[in-house]
């Protein structure tokens, strides 16, 4: 495995850092307080080329290799303080763009991908339902085929980007008796009769990433809106999760790096008992542990990018990276607050916001417990009860 970066990748990383520092400069505190989505920032990222990174040039992207994508997302996480904005961008890239690229017809690719890459439209997928979370494929949403069309009925919960999305990839069962093989995916456009989205859902963290509930009531769509073959829903979902689990944590590598630098600076300047607090072993060791977590997480995330670049399966590796990096992120955020004391608990520095944002990383894209189940299954252990 070679995780070294060539001059072109390093140059691109530098340009991403400069872009984020110069363009993604809105004050996150009021955005977070009011749960406001930075649509302008989203469009700036698209114009710069972020949303189009993994997409081929003929569809409006730049066809960047997986490691370059990871490098870019890490740089964004370092220089942009709006974790919610970056989460919404990731949600579109991995749960909507990639499935269309991998499973879509040429017509679907041409219809959606250029506008997704340009920032003209926003998309995401809808899997979670009121009674299903970790048991993702226990769907109640149904799609009944009628005269060459599908009629969808059901409810989706906790859907990122739902209030601002122009199109949503809805997973529904066409035949519950077939289990996983009975699930299909359908692209539903905003404004389709029978399709409605609730207002923004308030939440603990990632407040600048809008979330809502989707209701489908006799929502009729064309057969051309089905993504992939009938019954391919599970394969489509698993494909997007492999990408998402490996790439979405790349942003948080940048966050952890920024936190370490902030803590080192504070430990040098803040004095207690007549000397910088960095001279106290309790503080120095806490920062050292943060560095260990960052570097070990970084190599796991890079490994997923390397495997994808080699065209290899990364299901277990993505689960390992997701589990390890997300839990390390939470711990690093807690340590950063402890090092800063009361100052870290205040709103202005943004450290407490990083902690609130980090908690969800152990839940979305499969909880830590689900990641452990995936790892155990790949090791050949009996299915956990």
Radius of gyration: 21 Å
The span between the termini is: 36 Å
Strand arrangement within the widest β-sheet reads 1-4-5-8
Structural class: alpha+beta
Q: Do you know the CATH topology of the largest domain?
A: Butyryl-CoA Dehydrogenase, subunit A, domain 3
Describe the structure.
The chain is an alpha+beta fold and 385 residues long. It has 3 domains: 7-122, Acyl-CoA dehydrogenase/oxidase, N-terminal domain (Butyryl-Coa Dehydrogenase, subunit A, domain 1, Orthogonal Bundle), CATH 1.10.540; 125-231, Butyryl-CoA Dehydrogenase, subunit A, domain 2; 249-378, Butyryl-CoA Dehydrogenase, subunit A, domain 3, CATH 1.20.140.10. 51% of the residues lie in helices and 15% in strands. The chain is built from 13 helices and 10 strands. The protein has helices spanning 7-23, 28-34, 39-48, 66-79, 83-103, 106-118, 233-247, 250-269, 281-309, 315-340, 342-345, 351-359, 368-378; strands spanning 123-126, 142-146, 149-160, 167-173, 183-189, 195-197, 211-222, 226-227, 271-272, 275-276. The chain has a 4-stranded mixed β-sheet with strand order 1-4-5-8, covered by helices on one side. It has a 4-stranded antiparallel β-sheet with strand order 2-3-7-6, with no helix packed on it. A two-stranded antiparallel ribbon has the order 9-10. Helix 4 packs antiparallel against helix 9 (281-309), helix 5 runs antiparallel to helix 7 (233-247) and helix 8 runs parallel beside helix 10 (315-340). The relative contact order is 0.12.
